[in-house]
Design goal:
Elements: E1 2-7, E2 16-22, E3 29-38, H1 41-48, E4 63-71, E5 83-86, H2 96-100, H3 110-114, E6 125-127, E7 130-132, E8 144-148, E9 152-154, H4 161-164, H5 170-182, E10 189-193, H6 197-208, E11 213-217, H7 224-230, E12 234-236, H8 245-252, E13 259-262, H9 267-275, E14 283-286, H10 300-304, E15 308-311, H11 319-331, E16 341-346, H12 350-358, E17 364-368
Helix pairs in contact: 5-6, 8-9
This protein binds nicotinamide-adenine-dinucleotide, ligand AHE and zinc ion (2 copies).
Ligand AHE binds near residues 110 and 169.
Length: about 375
């Protein structure tokens, strides 16, 4: 079938609106009509050329909500008309990782997904016969996309896909990192670096966990109003201080925070986030994605003296078995999503969404198809 799509032809170039060919879903695959998709910083990261797995031409996008249009042979867990959220972290239930019960990082199709291909090693997208690669196994910047069945979470059809699409990445990632990865407990002190979609969702998670202090850190103070509204108790701009921000936080918190979260993708800030943690028990969670070749560092003494460095992907959430529950909690009014949606637009304007993100003017832009 023909589909409108925003194609990333090459690193650093604006996306180009095209009519592409989308093949029918093959065995174990599903074709989905996208209804809406958020634009996450990771899409911009890959387009910038910093992603070692970036492969072009491709169709970016991984924060979507859609409706099943057709199913391939053998698909049993979804049917035409089901409402679904694409998962860049699938859940097969049978690989070593799924069976371990210790991680959400299903590896069943990770190798082909990282190469921009479906599990059978081919792509479903093309333009005038030229193959176009998938992205994160989702490619939500297309009116129609094809995914493996194990990469779809079936969700409540009453949930507005224009909002719950944000649970396909940003909001789940931030909330999940706090609740699943760090397991922040009532009364804990928390520092969150970066008040984009991820950091603000971590603020929501920390407020839900009843953290006693939630310190929001950003160099763009326009983010602070929403941070406070969501539960931040302190908002700090590192540019206001002439000493390292970790020293500021250690002083503010009588020795450091119990938990910190890096939601930027800056390796220097990752160090600050670790070093603002309390001696003996403080835990720092890396969420931000850093560019190819970059590395983190700290004095090993920071770890010897009890601080813990962790990482979190998709908030540690198992997409098929746990994401539908996040949708239900949203439907029950436990948290809001429209606070995050600063802009909505058509796919034709997707490059504006990237501009707004780079200018620090948006939290999330949601593309409506
Ligand atoms: P965003 O661009 O919306 O937000 C980033 C925020 O960081 C902005 O408010 C910006 O002002 C702030 N910032 C930038 N440099 C700073 C600095 N030096 N000190 C303090 N604040 C600074 O991005 P986002 O969509 O929220 O994504 C955040 C990061 O999380 C990205 O690296 C993204 O790739 C990553 N991410 C990871 C996962 C995962 O599963 N691990 C999921 C989604 C996104
Ligand atoms: N491809 C990059 C890493 C990108 C990355 O870390 N992705 C996160 C999700 S970001 C969503 O906005 C993730 O889940 N990673 C786990 C995985 O298996 O990709 C690189 O450095 O190679
Ligand atoms: Zn994302
Ligand atoms: Zn698996």
């Amino acid at each position: 079938m023909k589909s409108k799509a925003a194609v990333a032809w090459a690193v650093g170039q604006p996306l180009s609106m095209e009519i592409v060919d989308v093949m029918p879903p093959q065995k174990g695959e599903v074709r989905v009509k996208m209804i809406a998709t958020g634009v996450c910083h990771t899409d911009a990261f890959t387009l910038s050329g910093d992603d070692p797995e970036g492969i072009f031409p491709c169709i970016l996008g991984h924060e979507g909500g859609g409706i099943v249009e057709s199913i391939g042979e053998g698909v049993t867990s979804v049917k035409v008309g089901d409402h679904v959220i694409p998962l860049y972290t699938p859940e097969c239930g049978e690989c070593k990782f799924c069976k371990s019960g210790k991680t959400n990082l299903c590896q069943k199709i990770r190798e082909t997904q990282g190469k921009g291909l479906m599990p059978d090693g081919t792509t479903r997208f093309s333009k005038d016969g030229q193959p176009i690669y998938h992205y994160m196994g989702t490619s939500t910047f297309s009116e129609y996309t094809v995914l493996p069945e194990i990469s779809l979470a079936k969700v409540n059809p009453e949930a507005p896909l224009e909002e719950v699409c944000l649970l396909g990445c940003g909001v789940t990632t931030g909330m999940g990192a706090v609740m699943n990865t760090a397991k922040v407990e009532e009364g804990a002190t928390v520092a969150i670096f970066g008040m984009g979609g991820i950091g603000l969702s971590a603020v929501i998670g920390a407020a839900m966990a009843k953290a006693s202090r939630i310190i929001a850190i950003d160099i763009n103070e326009s983010k602070f109003d929403l941070a406070r509204k969501l539960g931040a108790t302190d908002c700090i701009n590192p540019k206001d201080y002439d000493k390292p921000i970790q020293d500021v936080i250690v002083e503010l918190t009588d020795g450091g925070v119990d938990y910190s979260f890096e939601c930027i993708g800056n390796v220097h800030v990752m160090r600050s986030a670790l070093e603002c943690c309390h001696k003996g028990w403080g835990e720092s969670v890396v969420i931000g994605v850093a560019g190819a070749g970059q590395e983190i560092s700290t004095r090993p003494f920071q770890l010897v003296t009890g601080r813990v460095w962790k990482g979190s992907a998709f908030g540690g959430v198992k997409g098929r078995s746990e994401l539908p529950e996040y949708v239900e909690r949203y439907m029950a009014g436990e948290f809001k999503l429209n606070d995050f949606i600063t802009h909505t637009m058509g796919l034709e304007q997707v490059n504006e969404a990237f501009d707004l993100m780079h200018e620090g003017k948006s939290i999330r832009t949601v593309i409506h198809f």
